[in-house]
Predict the structure.
Amino acid sequence: MRGVLYVIACGAPAAAHVHDLVPLAQAAGWQVHVVTTPMGERFVDVPRLERLTGDRVRSTYRMPDEPKGLPPADAVVVAPATFNTINKWAGGIADTFAVGLLCEVMGFGVPTLAVPLLKAALARHVAFARNVACLEEMGARVLFDPDAPPESRMPSWERIMQELHSVVGERQSRE
């Protein structure tokens, strides 16, 4: 078992296929837990993800009387990561459970891979470039090619898993 993997899905079209990432991660030995942004929840198939993971999909903060439900993460994949999430995460604006969780795991040094999916016009926004650099400075790997054509901007789930294992391997070699 490689450990616990948080898959965080934001509100972009590729989130509708995050259920394809889960079995790839499980086959690689990860225990997968899915978290979505509030908008991301509208894109995913929650019942299907819950069947695949054996766990509920989380999108909101828990109430104080509710038990903690997520085991500590050993790695995180944020895919697709939206313009909004990248900018809030880099700025420490934890107004959603997903972004709050991302801010927290960065503080613990958890290997994290972000895979932005956004329009070219948004990718050219100065805040996005600054915030990608900020996340990279904090230790996140950002897998994004702003010059890729729109239909190729989101890498395959297989490519995302390869990149995740690279990030995890690099972190382990430094420890």
User: Anything to note?
Assistant: The radius of gyration is 15 Å. The helical segments are 21-27, 38-41, 46-53, 83-91, 97-108, 120-123, 126-137, 157-174. The longest helix spans residues 157-174.
